[in-house]
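Progress report, Aim 2. The chain analyzed during this reporting quarter is listed below.
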Amino acid sequence: MILIFLSTFIFFIVELVSKNKKKKTGKIIDDDTSDDIPTIINL
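Predicted structure tokens for the chain:
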């Protein structure tokens, strides 16, 4: 249970960092983030 919480929390941080990088480059792709979430849940 704790591992699941940690994995989702870490994934959330990674998503925030990736979004910030996309904002700096000026390219924000929402489709990529929405596609990545189900793949992580399937793991």
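The longest helix spans residues 2-25. The radius of gyration is 12 Å. These observations will guide the mutagenesis work planned for the next reporting period.
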